[in-house]
Automatic annotation (TrEMBL):
Keywords, ordered alphabetically: Cell membrane, Membrane, Protein transport, Translocation, Transmembrane, Transmembrane helix, Transport
Family statement: Belongs to the YajC family.
GO BP term, pick one: protein transport
Transmembrane feature ranges: 6-22
Location of the protein in the cell: Cell membrane
Taxonomic path: Bacteria, Pseudomonadati, Bacteroidota, Flavobacteriia, Flavobacteriales
Protein name per Swiss-Prot or TrEMBL: Sec translocon accessory complex subunit YajC
Cellular component per GO, a single term: plasma membrane
Chief localization: membrane
Membrane topology value: Single-pass membrane protein
Signal sequence range: none
Length: 97
């Protein structure tokens, strides 16, 4: 019994780290993977580097998307598309009173 009480703070620390750091990160990664798999032609996106564009085609062989910007067509990896910024870009605009 004394040995369990000795390791209890360490075990508690691992539980806290799991629920406050690891689990939310796993949940976010799952959401980003789902977002990337649900992309379709015509979606307006923002890359993590800040490039705005519209998806015009997919390259399944390279796991990439081809986007159209003001400068022309550019190919990006699916992982470089920012989920947060793309959702903000496509969110309906709220009217101010």
């Amino acid at each position: 019994m004394d040995q369990i009480a000795q390791f209890a703070p360490i075990i508690l620390m691992f539980v806290v780290v799991f629920f406050f750091m690891i689990r939310p990160q796993m949940k976010r990664a799952k959401q980003e993977k789902q977002f990337a798999s649900e992309l379709k032609k015509g979606d307006r996106i923002v890359t993590k580097s800040g490039m705005h564009g519209k998806i015009i085609d997919f390259s399944e062989k390279q796991n990439a998307v081809i986007i159209e910007t003001g400068a022309g067509k550019i190919t990006f990896d699916r992982s470089s598309i920012s989920m947060e910024m793309s959702q903000k870009l496509n969110a309906p605009v709220k009217e101010k009173k």
